[in-house]
Design goal:
alpha/beta, Beta Polymerase, domain 2, Rossmann fold, 3 domains, 6-stranded parallel β-sheet, 16 helices, 10 strands, elongated
């Protein structure tokens, strides 16, 4: 069994392309079944977030071209449109990549914790879909354990750095005091909850949370003394919002240019700060064409994020050392799995030889032979059968001058060269 990780992320592709290859919601299960149907793929999982879409596969041969073609076909794109933006990691490099992603070392925000939760969801979805087997299943469990070790043994998660933190920090560059301002947050997931917490800590004047499920919006908003609305109520409340931050799993835009233009008219063109964290995007890019709108995407947060990373750099080096050790540990386990089949075959052959010799010995007893004679026959026959193959190989290795094979045989059977 071999491993491969193939994907696209914030380092290799802009948000415009990432949103085209995102696989979200219920579509992931269908995509997994479609992916596992490829002849080269034995097991598979898919991780798709605002910053990356990655395929993790257990394979018998290199399926890079097949996976590239599949990803393009699934999204009705030309393979050449995504091929320059893809990265591919085989075997131990795939293991290392998975551990780095789970540990937050490959994130836009170094050490951010949300990715681990997203990876656990990817594992659960693949597990429920029946597309995981022994190798990937073990790899994900190993990954979760290593990510926990990184969090415990290093300071990588101690600084308050996240996309939510970066978004709020950027908002402060426009609104230095949040006390007299209103924020509209769209979504109710972990990123929105973290954003709400940061805004609340900054003494935001008024908080509105909009979500497709009204109950979830009310529940989250109540935690921060805000109130919740449904997505259909956004046009009525948008004119109130000085800050709009959106992070949903919607397949289409929630805010379009006409809706925002109408809200600006009601605001008498007071400026609005908007951050679209979602991929695919929740806010139509055309909204940025309107005056008094400051629209940012996750890619625009990079500069803010970089300013908050210095305290995590040393911790990241420590995390890389942990990962080096854990990659070797997993690959040793994987190599051991390759030996299992050989051991099983060897034992089966020995058991068959034993059963054959034992059957003949029993037949001798049934025919009235002396028990001692039957035991001698059994011992002699088993000894001959079990030593014949190794004896032939030792002689052939010696005659051909194959010293490496001879040494391996002697080591395997714990024999003295003399």
């Amino acid at each position: 069994m071999s491993l491969i990780a193939l994907g696209i992320n914030h380092r290799t592709a802009p948000v415009e392309l990432r949103e085209q290859v995102a696989i979200t919601g219920d579509r992931i299960t269908d995509a997994l079944h479609d992916l596992i149907a490829l002849p080269a793929v034995d097991e598979a999982a898919i991780l798709s977030t605002c910053n990356r879409t990655e395929l993790y596969c257990g394979v018998q041969e290199d399926p890079t071209d097949a996976l590239t073609d599949w990803l393009a076909r699934y999204h009705q794109l030309e393979p050449d449109a995504i091929r320059p933006h893809l990265y591919r990691y085989p075997n131990d490099d795939a293991v290392r990549h998975l551990l780095r992603v789970a540990g937050g070392l490959d994130s836009m925000i170094l050490g951010e914790p949300q990715i681990l939760g997203q990876m656990k969801e990817a594992w659960q979805t693949a597990n429920d879909a029946g597309t995981l087997d022994i190798t990937l299943g073990r790899l994900f469990q190993h990954t979760f354990s290593v990510a926990k070790q990184i969090r415990t043994d290093t300071a990588i998660g101690e600084s308050p750095v996240s996309i939510a933190f970066a978004a709020v920090s950027l908002a402060r560059q426009i609104f230095s005091d949040f006390k007299h301002h209103t924020a509209l947050l769209i979504g109710a997931g972990e990123t929105i909850e973290l954003t709400a917490r940061h805004l609340h800590d900054q003494q935001l004047g008024k908080l509105i949370i909009a979500n497709r499920t009204l109950e979830n919006a009310h529940s989250l908003a109540a935690t921060f003394n805000g109130y919740g609305i449904g997505l259909d109520e956004i046009p009525a409340h948008l004119p109130e919002a000085d800050i709009v931050i959106s992070a949903t799993a919607s397949d289409s835009a929630i805010l379009d240019k006409a809706m925002v233009k109408a809200a600006l008219k009601g605001r008498k063109h007071r400026p609005v700060f908007m951050v679209d964290i979602a991929v695919p995007r929740d806010i139509d890019p055309a909204v940025a064409e309107l005056e008094d709108i400051y629209l940012y995407t996750v890619d625009d947060l990079q500069e803010v994020i970089q300013e908050n990373l210095k305290s995590r750099q040393q911790a990241a080096l420590q995390a890389e050392d942990i990962i080096d050790v854990q990659v070797d540990r997993f690959m040793a386990w994987l190599r051991g799995q390759d030996a299992v089949a050989s051991i099983r075959s060897y034992r089966l052959q020995a058991e068959q030889q034993r059963d054959a010799a034992l059957g003949k010995a029993r037949q001798m007893l049934d025919n009235g032979k002396d028990p001692q004679e039957a035991l001698d026959f059994l011992a002699r026959t088993l000894t001959n059968k079990l030593t014949h193959g190794p004896s032939v190989r030792i002689r052939q290795a010696a005659e051909s001058g194959d010293d490496a094979l001879l040494q391996a045989i002697l080591k395997l059977y714990d024999l003295d060269r003399e």
